[in-house]
Amino acid sequence: MKRICQLLFLSLLVAGCASKPQVKYVFYFIGDGMGVNEVIGTNLYNEANGLGNVNFTGFPVVNFITTVSANSLVTDSSAAGTALATGTKINNGVVGVDSDGNWTPNLTEWAHAAGFGTGVATSVGVNHATPASFVAHTASRNGYEEISIQMIDSPVDFMAGATFLTNRGSGHDAAYFEHKADSAGIAIFKGPGAIRAMDEIDYLKPRVLCLSAKEEDSIPYAIDRKEDDTRLADFTDAGIRYLESRFGKKGFFFMIEGGKVDYAGHGNDAATCFQEVNDMAESVDLALAFLARHPKETLILVTADHETGGLMLGSGRYEMHPDRLARQHASVDAVTDLFRDAFFPEGKPVKTPSWDAVKAFFNEQLGMWGDVEVSERVEKDLKDVYTRTFGKEGSSLVDANLYSVNYQLVADVIRALDRAAGYQWSFGSHSGSPVGLYVTGACAEEFNAVRDNAEIAPLIAKLAGYAK
Ligand SMILES: [Zn+2]
Hints:
Blueprint: H1 2-19, E1 25-31, H2 36-48, E2 61-65, H3 77-86, H4 107-113, E3 117-122, H5 129-133, H6 144-153, E4 158-161, H7 174-183, E5 186-190, H8 191-196, H9 200-203, E6 207-211, H10 232-247, E7 252-258, H11 260-266, H12 270-293, E8 298-304, E9 307-308, E10 312-313, H13 332-343, H14 355-366, H15 376-389, E11 398-400, E12 405-407, H16 408-421, E13 423-424, E14 430-431, E15 435-441, H17 456-464
Parallel strand pairs: 1-7, 1-8, 3-4, 3-7, 4-6, 5-6
Antiparallel strand pairs: 2-15, 8-15, 9-14, 10-13, 11-12
Helix pairs in contact: 2-12, 10-12, 11-12, 15-16
The structure holds zinc ion.
Zinc ion binds next to α11.
């Protein structure tokens, strides 16, 4: 009888979701480049390091969605971001404009028109492709100038990110756009101290913009984080406090992007990638605490725009050893900086270090040739790169990915470490693999039927009663 009552109650709830808007607060998390294997890979990494599973992998709804764009089976972040934000498939490289040149209305516009508060936050540039897809409409995702102006002129209540990315040669720097935002009446908070100190008086400001205090296009990777660095969780926490204070009665829509899972995928750096997934999960925890306070009216979705790097679980043998990533405490970018300091202090080597000295460096930074044994074949390949690095090619022997340029040797040693741990990268760009959709809270079951990224935004709008 109890079971029948439960079922009846559940079906009434579901029927309620379908018939009238139930959802007041929406949290929409996007892990850029966070494919299924990046998430499961993080769980394996966490288990080997004594950490728990990624929180959203335990959500009641776990689903898979396709990510194709209008003109390619392999999407980029702006086309996928636009599909996630508007429900319309557009071409790669475009933000919020369809193939006929029409602007595609998005969730923040729908929510705002219905009187809800709106927010976007990211760990990368505030005007980078994903947040831009939720606010702006431009022919190119690289039109940072236009995107910045549209974001400043938009009605979005809360915005957060590392900085305003700018176009070289435009004559405008990030400070120019901060000044424009300030002139538009947007209150600006920079750095963790100012952001955490936001209080009731600040919550009365008509619009808020949180930025990193440092000159950086993205906030540092979690694996490289220093005490005074801004965290994605600072942005998320500030956004929740501000939006709840101003729109607690009516409700709000809040998109939060973990933007650097993608960067680590482009750089083929597994430990860094997994710590970025964990870092976004820290922000998901804040949303879960909000859900605990407003259980019947809060919907939390976690998904990704696409997978990056073609990450495999397994590297050719019937075994994995995620514990072997435990000694890596810096990203490929940061290990490159340390390598430069150690061996190229003046831009060229002071003297050629011995192969043993280089191996000792990688043992200290990554555990290679220490806890992690290196086979003869792998060592031969790496030693060849070492010989070239300290030969004619010198520091020009680099591994350039979309977001950073690293020493070939450093990048190759980290790929070898990942392979030894059982993680194999296929390439440094996006794949067309499906991504996960993880949902909890009010009306979460409705997302069981979703199969493609373009189906999410219209369903959120329907469940929350946004004006479309
Ligand atoms: Zn990417």
